[in-house]
C-alpha cells in the first residue's frame, strides 16, 4: 500500500495553531478514511511535545474520542482505524541541498498500537518521528475544525490547502496527482465531470462551511481537457456557516459599496465572508457610520486596538450611537463598552479556570488513589523525601494549624504533590486548558474566543501548575 509523496510545497512562517504537520504527510496519496485522518492528527497532536523523548505514547480512548469529536460508544471502529494507520505506508523524497542527492524513505504512519483497557499505547518509527518532529515545511491543522468535517474528501482538501495559508493561491496540481491526494482509488471518476460533481464540489463546500478558509477552484486545460488545478485561498477569522446566496439590497451607489468593501478588508481586517454577512444584515449607510466613528477614535489612530475586526463588529452589533454628544466623548463611550465586554469575558474565563483547577486536582488525586498499593506506597515515600524542606517550613510557620499528621492537607504541600504526580505518574492524562474550555457551555467558549481574538497572549489563556 505504498503512498507516494509528490509535493513538498513552500517553506514559510505561520502563526501558532493546534497541530504542526509535515508537508510530506499532507501532500501524499492515500485512501485513509475520515476517521483515520482524524485519529492520525489527534495522536500526533497528543504526542508532539514528547515525540523525540519517548518510544511509546499513551492516551485514553475517551480523550482520543474527545479530540476527534467522536460521540459514539462503539470503540471497535476506533480500533479498526488504528489498524488502518499501521498498514498505511507513506513514502517521501527529500533533496539534499548541498549534494543534490535524492533521499527516499518510507514508513507506516504509526509503527505499533495496543489497547489495554481504557488506555491506547502507540509508537512511531524512528524515521517517522524525525519527519514529524522537525519539519522544515509544514501545514497547521486545527483539531477543533477537523472534528466538524463529515467526509474524508473535505478533510483531505482542507489539509492540502492549509499548507498554503497566507498565500493567495495553492500551487498548481496535476489533476491525476490531485485525485490521488484526495484519496481517489485508481480507476474511479476518470471522467472529470463525475469527479467534480461527486468529489471536488462537495469537498469545497465542506471546507467553506466548516473551516477557517474559503476556497475556490481554478483549472488549466489542454486540448479542452482539464490537466491542472489550483485553489484560490481566502482566510476567515471566524467560521460562519454558509447559507443560500442572497443579493445585497438598497445599494444605490456601487462606488460606495466597493469603497466600503475595500476599507473593511484592508483597514479592519475583516474576511470576505464577514463583509458579505454585514452587507446582508445592515444598511450600507449604517455600516459607514460605524466605520467613520471607529476610525476617528484615538485607540484606532494610535494603533492600540489589537483586533480591529472585533472592535468594529462590536460597534455594529451594539449600535453605538454618536448623537447629542461630542465625537471624542462618543468614541470614549464606545471604548468603555468594548472594554466592558472584554472584562466580562475575563471574568467568565477566571471562573472556568477555577473549575479547571478543580478538575486537575480531582484527576491527580484519582490517579494517585488508583495506583497499586505497592506503587502508591513507593510514590508517597518519594514525595515525602521530595517535599521534606517545604513540609518543615509549613510546620514551622503554621504550627498552630498543621501537625506532622495533617500537613498533607496544606495547600502548599498539595501543590507540590500535584507537581510530582504530573512528573512521575504514567497513568495520569490531563486535558490542556483550551481543550477543557471546549467542554464547557457556549458562554464560556465565546468568552474564550473573544479574549483570544482581543489579546492572544493574555495570561488567562495559559495555565501553569
Q: Can you walk through the features of this model?
A:
This protein is an alpha+beta fold. It has 4 domains: 143 residues, Arc Repressor Mutant, subunit A (Orthogonal Bundle); 88 residues, Orthogonal Bundle (Arc Repressor Mutant, subunit A); 67 residues; 117 residues, no CATH class. It has 19 helices and 11 strands. The protein has a 3-stranded mixed β-sheet with strand order 1-4-5. Strand 10 and strand 11 form a beta hairpin. The N terminus is likely disordered.
Please specify the SSE layout and strand pairing.
Layout: E1 2-4, E2 19-22, H1 23-26, H2 34-47, E3 57-60, H3 61-68, H4 75-87, E4 89-95, E5 102-108, E6 112-116, E7 119-123, H5 126-133, E8 138-141, H6 143-146, H7 152-162, E9 173-174, H8 175-181, H9 192-210, E10 213-222, E11 225-235, H10 254-266, H11 272-281, H12 284-295, H13 298-301, H14 308-317, H15 327-369, H16 373-397, H17 411-424, H18 433-437, H19 442-454
Parallel strand pairs: 1-4
Antiparallel strand pairs: 2-8, 3-7, 4-5, 6-7, 9-11, 10-11
> Taking strands numbered 1, 2, ... along the chain, how are they ordered across the largest sheet?
1-4-5
Radius of gyration: 27 Å
Most strands sheet: 3 strands, mixed
What would the principal axes of the Cα set say about the shape? flat
CATH topology of the largest domain: Arc Repressor Mutant, subunit A
Which percent band covers the strand fraction?
5-15%
Number of helices, where a helix is a run of at least 4 consecutive DSSP H or I residues: 19
Number of strands: 11
Poorly predicted spans: 1-30, 238-253, 323-331
**What is the terminal-to-terminal distance?**
45 Å
Kindly give the count of domains.
4
Order of helices and strands: EEHHEHHEEEEHEHHEHHEEHHHHHHHHHH
Under the CATH scheme, which class of the largest domain?
Answer: Mainly Alpha
The average pLDDT is 76
- Give the helix proportion (percent range): 40-55%
What class, by secondary structure content? alpha+beta
Label the CATH architecture of the largest domain: Orthogonal Bundle
